[in-house]
Amino acid sequence: MIQHQLPLWSDIAIKCSLGEAQQQQQGLGHIELVLGHALVICELCLEASRKGVGSDLPLPVDRKDALGKTWMCRRCRRRHYTRFPEPPRPALPRDYDSVPSPLDPEDAQDGHDEAHPIAHTDDTVLARARSLHGGDIGILAHQGDDYNTNHLLRRRRRKMLATKLTLVGLKFRSDSKLCGTYLRGSWYDPSRVAAVMKEMEWYYAETSYWDFMSEDFESAMSKTEGLAEWVQILVRDHGWGARETYKTGAIVETTTEDEQLHHRRDGARLLPPPSLWPLIDGWLQHMFEHMGGSVDMELWDQTYRPDPGAFTISIETDDEEE
Fold first, then answer.
1. How many structural domains comprise the chain?
2. FRET pair for 232, CA 20 to 30 Å: which of 94, 218, 239, 318?
């Protein structure tokens, strides 16, 4: 019990910006929060990796000192291998794939469209790849398709995703394709995965999304049509106060059968997650401008839909330097 209350855990959580406010809302202790983010926290410097994928992740290094096997971030691995270089070996195709091709300085300076890569030796390629990615294990992690590396990280990935989902009030679902793809080693941002899962919970619970999916609409189109109906009822019931209403939870209860699409489950209403607020605000802005000073629903622009790109799910990231 005492170890759960040690200031160390709260210090690490604050230092790594792990979501203090959300953690308190969901009843997580600091130790659960930190251990849930073990995938991205370096055991040496106790800092969180900025990207959370590839060679930027903390990876195990068998140190020759008293620390032994330690999960170290890319920066700490670089420092370690500067002092204790890895043994030489022939350069492999993955080493070449892991480094950008250096360009002829004259071509770069002259701004030529077709710059010519400089020929380099195996030794320089290997040294560059190891330096960029923090040793051989960093090169493997950067490639992303090494079975042993992915297997090594899988348990930490699962714990990380489960923690991210808990922070938004959800539980890990083994039947989720999105979660399964992340666990298998995809370069998804786990925070965005959790945000998308939260959005889908809301679409299913509070809109007619599933009705459109059942009619063989694509997911993006189902979201569009379901949200169109939801926004229309929101403005009808709350007029100019719609913007403030949907964010604070003061949505009136609907009772008619026709209005059940706006409230598709029993119990407390679900608020749209903050990640959807810009989309909804933009939709309301267009609607109010089109209706002028009136909230007459006959003036509602029935044909308006946001750009399809607004519904595009972007959750991939990379391990390049920031």
1. 1
2. 218
Residue 71 domain boundaries: 54-103+117-145
In a domain, 75, yes or no: yes
Measured CA to CA, the distance from residue 283 to residue 104 in angstroms comes to 50
In a domain, 96, yes or no: yes
pLDDT in tens, the chain (322 residues): 335 556 788 888 888 888 766 766 677 788 888 999 999 999 999 999 988 889 999 999 999 888 999 999 999 999 999 999 999 999 999 999 999 876 444 444 444 444 444 456 778 999 999 999 999 999 999 988 788 888 889 999 999 999 999 999 999 888 888 899 999 888 888 989 999 999 999 999 999 888 888 877 788 888 888 888 888 888 888 888 888 888 887 665 554 544 444 444 444 578 899 989 988 988 888 777 776 655 565 656 666 777 766 666 678 888 776 5
Q: 31 near 41, Cβ under 8 Å?
A: no
DSSP annotation of 67 reads T
Burial-class residue 146 by CB neighbours within 10 Å (0-12, 13-18, 19+): middle
Is 208:221 a contact under the CB 8 Å cutoff?
no
Cβ 269 vs Cβ 263: under 8 Å: yes
68, part of any domain: yes
* 69 lies in some domain: yes
